[in-house]
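A brief tutorial aside. Many learners find it easier to grasp structure tokens once they have seen a single protein encoded end to end. The record that follows does exactly this for Tropomodulin. Read the sequence first, then the structure, and try to relate runs of similar tokens to stretches of the chain.
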Amino acid sequence: MSGNSNYYSEETRIIAPAARTKVGTAAPKIFGKELRDLDDADLEGLLSKLSPEELEDLNSDFDPDNSLLPPSQRCRNQTSKQPTGPYQRDKLLLFLEESAKQEEDWEEWVPFSPGIKRGKIYEPKEDSDKKSGEMEMPIELDLDDDEEDLNGALQEAPEKDLVDLAGILGMHNLLNQSQYYNALKGKGQDETTGTTFTGVVRASEAKILPEEPENETDVDDCIKKLEADDEMVTEVNINNMKRVSKERIKALIKASCASKHIKKLSLANTAISDQEARGLRASVLGNQIEMDMMLTVEENESLLRVGVSFQSMEARHRVSEALERNYERLRLRRLGKEPQEWNDIDQAATS
């Protein structure tokens, strides 16, 4: 430790150097002294010479800048009026109502007259998307403000081309339907559609379509094959065969019920009506039929789905359990499990 400095010496007052001022400007002074030359005693002496009004004005120029305080406490209370008492809502509303009645109306330069609107009347803007006849992709023509050439071209153009131009521009009210669609598709106008705006409107000729071939299904042969349970007969179609009698159609339906290989039977637009076909529909199977179907599903070990809604609670429950067992068999077969585990599943289901 050097002799000039003492570690235990008394604290000395350190004066920081004055801040550099801008070139051409002098430091602010108060009563001929700079701010760095003023002590706290001098500032207190200055404040003691101020009047209460001047102190209030000086205090109102400064707000507490403390971020830890809530915003409601950073601003000083500037209300000098004494409180009138506790808050009473009814008296306040009564006071506001009376003061509003006593307040005079504003003076108007123009006297009031009923039925006359003042100011600018609001007019809604037109939506460009809702304009009739507007195309999705409007065509823009750059004519360089040469109206004479445009008028000359329109005067010399034939009326047939003007019809196409009107169709392209979306002026469908000037054209008939055939002219409008021919112009959009790029087809030329001919005598059938009309080449002028004042042409007679004619109805377009109906398109002749070839008739569908008649259904040549042999109903009697189908009945015989279905009764014999032929494996080749899986689909029978007698649509649009109105000359087939109802008795033959009923015989065909009865033979289809006896067949075990038929998958589809089409009877659209035939002599049989909906009222008669509704009676052949099995809407309610019955308890005995549902039980037979339930036993058949339980005996089948490969069935995974049944598209029948059962009315009996027991049938629904046992069929769902049988399908779950079949799904489990499929899972074990995919994993390569032994058949003994399949038997365990059956024993667990029956127990």
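Self-check: The longest strand covers residues 235-237. If you spotted this yourself, you are ready for the next section.
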